[in-house]
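FOLDING PROBLEM:
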Amino acid sequence: MKHVLIALLRVYRFAISPMYGQVCRYHPSCSAYALEAVQVHGSVRGSWLAVRRLGRCHPWAAGGLDPVPPRRRRSRSDSVTDTSETDLPQEIHA
């Protein structure tokens, strides 16, 4: 699915986007943002980020630099549950 979306976005950028010219208020343009979002985050999250971006793109938007957020990295603590003694709270002895 990811490759299909990337192909569709590239076709849009090549065939349709040049007809509009430079009208995007944001940098990168919405189509470039969508392409990068799908490449970085995959088809589901990338599509969601692209739809959110399109929702922000309206005549009253301030515009400006709006990069694709970086991919979240899972830490070891998210994937492995280790309950060693060092992770447990220390008891206070009187």
The two ends are 62 Å apart (CA to CA). The chain has four helices and two strands. The first strand starts at residue 26 and ends at 27. Strands lie at 26-27, 64-65.
